[in-house]
């Protein structure tokens, strides 16, 4: 579904992502791990088109997306939940969710009840301003906004960062349910928590200094801890 081939991404003259090749298959949950500052968010942003690739290719559904805009990528079915959530604090919960519908060129312009089944609190608080929600509730809102467009590929950048344990469990359950209910949607998850990653992912990549240093279907803590510890 999504392939990166020898991807390099730079900020000005400083190369952050170096020669990364990876694949996310239909229905697969892939977890990208690594210390802070090694290039995980840069990689996610380049997949979404928010950062331009210096070299290499990004292919999605067999179409070259390397130079496509974020809008084109979103309309093709890639949805992004950024680190820090980036909801609109002055808009209501419902208005924030409705913005997600603009990502896809589909005729239906209503929020599926499935979204509220995933996150019941958002239905209860749909008339509240996004800025009045707790951090965990804002994270749920950001994920709901991404899911409402019915993406084929979901990019989640550290969705459990700074979130209270009960909401972490809710997010974990949602990811598992998405995989169970929709065999075609793929998820690329950036995550720091070893336990959370192992509980949901099918495949793992670890990045260090901008390069992939480990990949596989299993994650053995003793083998990879030196890439993840501060």
UniProtKB/TrEMBL annotation:
A single BP term in Gene Ontology: L-amino acid transport
NCBIfam families attached to this UniProt entry: urea_trans_UrtE
Family, similarity comment: Belongs to the ABC transporter superfamily.
| Key words of the record | Amino-acid transport, ATP-binding, Nucleotide-binding, Transport
The UniProt entry, under PANTHER family, shows: HIGH-AFFINITY BRANCHED-CHAIN AMINO ACID TRANSPORT ATP-BINDING PROTEIN, HIGH-AFFINITY BRANCHED-CHAIN AMINO ACID TRANSPORT ATP-BINDING PROTEIN LIVF
- Lineage top rank: taxon: Bacteria
GO MF annotations in UniProt: ATP binding; ATP hydrolysis activity; branched-chain amino acid transmembrane transporter activity
Q: Which SMART domains match?
A: AAA
The name this protein carries in UniProt is High-affinity branched-chain amino acid transport ATP-binding protein LivF
Stored CDD domains: ABC_TM1139_LivF_branched (cd03224)
Question: Does the entry feature the keyword ATP-binding, yes or no?
Answer: yes
Lineage of producing organism: Bacteria, Bacillati, Bacillota, Bacilli, Bacillales
One matching Pfam family is ABC_tran
SUPFAM superfamilies to which the protein is assigned, alphabetical: P-loop containing nucleoside triphosphate hydrolases
């Amino acid at each position: 579904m999504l392939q990166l081939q020898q991807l390099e991404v730079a900020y000005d003259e400083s190369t952050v992502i170096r020669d990364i090749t990876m694949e996310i298959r239909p229905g697969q949950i892939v977890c990208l791990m690594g210390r802070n500052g090694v290039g995980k968010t840069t990689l996610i942003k380049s997949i979404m088109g928010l950062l331009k690739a210096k070299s290499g290719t990004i292919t999605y559904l067999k179409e070259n997306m390397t130079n496509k805009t974020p809008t084109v990528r979103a309309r093709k079915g890639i949805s992004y939940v950024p680190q820090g959530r980036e909801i609109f604090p002055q808009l209501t919960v419902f208005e924030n969710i409705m913005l997600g519908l603009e990502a896809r060129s589909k005729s239906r312009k209503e929020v599926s009840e499935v979204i509220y089944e995933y996150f019941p609190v958002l239905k209860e608080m749909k008339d509240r301003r996004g800025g009045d929600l707790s951090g965990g509730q804002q994270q749920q809102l950001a994920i709901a906004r991404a899911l409402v467009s019915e993406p084929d590929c979901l990019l989640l950048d550290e969705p459990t960062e700074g979130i209270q344990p009960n909401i972490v469990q809710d997010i974990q359950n949602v990811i598992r349910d998405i995989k169970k209910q929709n065999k075609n949607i793929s998820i690329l998850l950036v995550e720091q928590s070893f336990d959370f990653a192992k509980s949901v992912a099918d495949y793992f990549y670890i990045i260090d200094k901008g390069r992939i240093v480990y990949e596989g279907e299993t994650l053995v803590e003793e083998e990879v801890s030196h890439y993840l510890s501060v």
